[in-house]
Write a structure and sequence with these properties.
By secondary structure, the chain is of the alpha/beta class. The protein has one domain: Alpha-Beta Barrel (TIM Barrel). It contains twelve helices and eight strands. The protein has an eight-stranded parallel barrel, surrounded by seven helices. Helix 2 links the parallel strand 1 and strand 2. Helix 2 crosses helix 4. Bound molecules: 3-methyl-2-oxobutanoic acid (KIV). The site of 3-methyl-2-oxobutanoic acid has 11 residues, from strand 6 and strand 8.
Length: about 270
């Protein structure tokens, strides 16, 4: 188990992630939920750890992210923070905890006090005044566009977004608006690879893709998918444990494959 070459040396900042984007150096994000995996992520050189509300499905047994509460998120952010002192930790804001700017400020503050260094919110133009207010008060924000799982019922299922010209233009406009409002990072989920690449090129902030092809500035996968724990894994994910043989090896292979551009391949992307 050779951690030394990958381990993070210094705490990761948004400044560092921007520098990596400018240098064309890919960074790695993993959605994970506990102290032990968080510590391993630091040793494996995972720059960003997302305490995603996917924990509703991966850990708590719900069939969507909608039942996740602030208390669930705080509990898991605190655990992850105890295990990891160098990755940048993003805490997801659960469904209906940021419906108004006031509510968002209150709940984002709670996540930051629990140990998050940035909060993630799903949504486009309607969210811009909220992003602006959070940014003005010193709370870094990660936007999330494309397939936004908290809107699964409105979207009619877990489906690829942005395939029509009109949808693609809307996604680009929303990405630009979120960045202009003060977002520091953007997650693009399940969008055609060419669209994700052009949004990443146009945006000055780093874009993290999941099911968005190889042209984004970073990649994120859920730890359960990396470790083959998901019964019906999404087509854009990969079980890295199968080849690596152990859990640290799987995490390190994910890091290496993202950084070298091997992951995601064309089969793990959408047209
Ligand atoms: O909740 C989560 O884990 C996420 C990622 C899949 C991007 O939002």
């Amino acid at each position: 188990m050779v951690y030394a070459t990958l381990a993070l040396e210094k705490p990761i900042t948004t400044y560092r992630l921007n520098k990596m984007k400018q240098a064309g150096e890919k960074f790695v994000t993993i959605a994970l939920y506990d102290a032990h995996m968080a510590a391993m992520a630091e040793r494996c050189g995972v720059e960003v750890v997302l305490v995603g509300d996917s924990l509703g499905m991966t850990v708590l047994g719900f069939d969507s992210t909608i039942p996740v509460t602030m208390e669930h998120m705080i509990y898991h952010v605190e655990a992850v923070k105890r295990g990891n002192h160098k990755s940048l930790i993003i805490g997801d804001m659960p469904f209906m905890t940021y419906a108004t700017p006031e509510q968002a400020l209150h709940n984002a503050g709670r996540l930051m006090q629990a140990g998050a260094q940035m909060v993630k919110l799903e949504g486009g133009l309607w969210l811009c005044p909220t992003v602006e207010q959070l940014a003005q008060r010193g709370i870094p924000v990660c936007g999330h566009l494309g397939l936004t799982p908290q809107s699964v019922h409105k979207l009619g299922g877990f489906r690829v977004q942005g395939r029509s010209d009109q949808q693609a233009k809307q996604l680009l406009d929303e990405a630009l608006a979120l960045a202009a409002a003060g977002a520091d990072l953007l997650v693009l989920e399940c969008v055609p690879a060419a669209l994700a690449q052009s949004i990443s090129q146009v945006l000055s902030i780093p874009v993290i893709g999941i099911g968005a092809g190889a042209g984004t500035d970073a990649q994120v996968l859920v730890i359960n998918d990396i470790l083959g724990l998901t019964e019906h894994p999404p087509s854009f994910s990969k079980n890295f444990l199968r080849e690596a043989g152990d859990i640290p090896g799987a995490m390190q292979q994910f890091v290496r494959d993202v950084k070298s551009g091997v992951f995601p391949s064309a089969e793990q992307s959408f047209n």
